[in-house]
Predict the 3D structure of the following.
Amino acid sequence: MADEWKAPDSEEGGEERKSWKLLEKTLLAGVQEQRRARRWGIFFKLLTFLYLFGILFLFSPLMDMDKAASRSANHTALVEVRGMIADQEPASADNIVKSLREAFKDPKTKGVVLRINSPGGSPVQSGYIYDEIRRLRGEYPDIKLYAVIADLGASGAYYIASAADEIYADKASLVGSIGVTAAGYGFVGTMDKLGVERRTYTAGEHKAFLDPFSPQKPEETAFWQGVLDTTHRQFIAMVKQGRGDRLKDKEHPELFSGLIWSGEQAKALGLVDGLGSASYVARDIVGEKELVDFTVQESPFDRFSKRIGASVAERLALYMGLQAPSLR
């Protein structure tokens, strides 16, 4: 009876073990298939990236060749001043000066258009560009530089424009804002209401005079106003030097007050010489309608890399097993 009972148990146990082994093999096969698919996915994604990068590297020289070809004929050189004029910005002095030098140096350049669409920025950066424009005009007396204001040519942007041989704008452009500003906030009353005590340690009596959490002192306010007034006088002097007798009324009480004018009003005041676009200046003033852009540009690779962004880099790292998923 015992032997007859054990045989079925042994047979059933064997079948069960076979079932578990079969299930285990199936699961392992599924895991292996997922790993294989993942490897192929990584491979094809990397192949796609390599393909795109290859296209960029292939076409970059061709684009440079196209630019060189376009410069083989007489043309009007174009340099853009777009956005804030500040260090490390596209409209930094380094970028604009480099572009202008290349534009003037090209033997086929018959005139240079400095197309401006900027609210201004650093007086130091603007001053560097102003001085370089004056130097280049002296070095290349046969090549004129025309500033063309698009939507906006204000403050430091007009500072730069005033160094040009002539200035053009649209009738609705905003021009001028010949002034200097330095803004901040004062939180002294808020600190008092919150019962917060400000502790500032300095070596130098006026070292923290711009601290927004400390009360203003009349003598420090007067000093800071003097700094702004000095910068303003420098700005006015450069505009008068650049525009000369074309300013209709140099003693106009509001001309250097920081007000901003339309292009039409600016022409009446002598802040601009005429109304027109960059194309108009190239075609009708310079006499070479072909505009060749000398503005310092990012390479196609750099532009593409920025567009990809950090999110794609994170995804690629995740696919390659270099980064673990995280909760956000």
